[in-house]
């Protein structure tokens, strides 16, 4: 991903496998190389675009968001979009197409995007532009949150057994 390339990155996988962490890391790297970067949770971005649209300020909002050389959209697919919201997102992606880069994280593979996007044609147009110059990574594995929770439980059980053994030894 170079400053003028308009190349994109799509990170897909279940919750907790590090998609957001990787996207932020790429964003930090971009900032260190002199690029301007904006990060949005998808839900917040869509709400911001929808509000601007309803207030007649959509074009200004698009220009404001589009100033960044790299735009990171996190958690696309967790919240269903209405047809209008999908079309607003399309306008943002189309504006950036082949000019500025996007990083998108999603819990759903591209073949399932029409399930949460309210407009099939706009969904296909978004994917067409997003994936044209793209590195797509499917991340698999267990959620690190679940893994950490499981490890805490195991450590707690081991500590309890150790304490019980110590108490048993003291009682004898």
**Under CATH, the topology of the largest domain is which?**
Rossmann fold
Highest-level CATH class of the largest domain:
Alpha Beta
Strand content: 15-25%
Structure summary, number of beta strands: 5
Approximate shape: elongated
Give the second-level CATH assignment, the architecture of the largest domain: 3-Layer(aba) Sandwich
Distance separating the two termini: 67 Å
**CATH level-4 homologous superfamily of the largest domain:** P-loop containing nucleotide triphosphate hydrolases
List the helices and strands and how they pair.
Elements (H helix, E strand, L loop, with lengths): L7 E5 L6 H14 L4 E5 H13 L3 H9 L3 E7 L6 H14 L4 E6 L6 H4 L3 H13 L1 E5 L5 H28 L1
Parallel strand pairs: 1-4, 1-5, 2-3, 3-4
Helix pairs in contact: 2-3, 2-4, 4-6
Q: What does this 3D model show about the protein?
A:
InterPro entries: AAA+_ATPase (IPR003593), IstB_ATP-bd (IPR002611), P-loop_NTPase (IPR027417). Residues 5-137 form the AAA+ ATPase domain. GO terms for molecular function: ATP binding. Residues 153-172 are annotated as: Disordered. Keywords: ATP-binding, Nucleotide-binding. This protein has 172 residues and is of the alpha/beta class. The chain has two domains: 8-141, P-loop containing nucleotide triphosphate hydrolases (Rossmann fold), CATH 3.40.50; 144-172. The chain has seven helices and five strands. It has helices at 19-32, 42-54, 58-66, 83-96, 113-116, 120-132, 144-171, and strands at 8-12, 37-41, 70-76, 101-106, 134-138. A five-stranded parallel beta sheet has the order 2-3-4-1-5. α4 (83-96) links the parallel β3 (70-76) and β4. α2 (42-54) runs antiparallel to α3, α2 (42-54) packs across α4 and α4 (83-96) runs parallel beside α6. The radius of gyration is 21 Å and the shape is elongated. The protein starts with 7 loop residues before the first strand and ends with a helix. The mean pLDDT is 93.
